[in-house]
Amino acid sequence: MRDAPHDDLNRGSRPGLVRDVLERSFTHGTRTRLRRPTPEQIAVMSAVAPEAAIHPSVDVYERVTCPLTIVLPDEGFYAGRREEVRAVVAARPERRLVEMRGHHNVTMAGPERLARVILDLVHPLPAPESGEPT
Questions:
Q1: Where are the alpha helices (H) located in 47-99, listed in sequence order?
Q2: What is the phi-psi region of residue 46: left when phi exceeds 0, alpha when psi lies from -120 to 50, beta otherwise?
Q3: How many helices (H) and strands (E) does the chain have?
């Protein structure tokens, strides 16, 4: 936690937030603690081959018919695949790409920026029954 402001995965995150997330990342067992996900699962998820399809898979995006916003940080895992992500977004008119500065851990390093993106998404939506903006 003390290294959170400088490590590659949590750079810019508040140490207290890193601590809270880490505490939620462990389950209590009988005299043990189990990390979720396990280090082995993390290793598999982190070792994405450059030639692999955008995860979970591009064909999943073909099935999404509701509005979709993708947040793409400039230093995230998919930063080098920006054109592929743009193609996914360009495939349907109700999709939007939000590019921002940061690494893959936007939720912890830039929660205010991500909250603004979310608020901008839901603010103009009409109220369910009245049809008027909320």
A1: 58-63, 82-90
A2: alpha
A3: 6, 4
Distance between CA 112 and CA 107 in Å, rounded? 9
Residue 4 pLDDT more than 80?
no
State how far Cα 37 lies from the chain centre: 16
* 112-132 tens-digit pLDDT: 889 999 998 888 766 667 555
Confidence (pTM): 0.62
Which letter, b or e, does each residue of 70-83 get, where b requires 16 or more Cβ atoms within 10 Å of its Cβ?
Answer: bbbbeebeeeebee
| pLDDT tens digits, 27-59 | 777 777 777 777 787 777 777 776 776 555 667
Question: Phi/psi of residue 25, each to 5°?
Answer: -85, 0
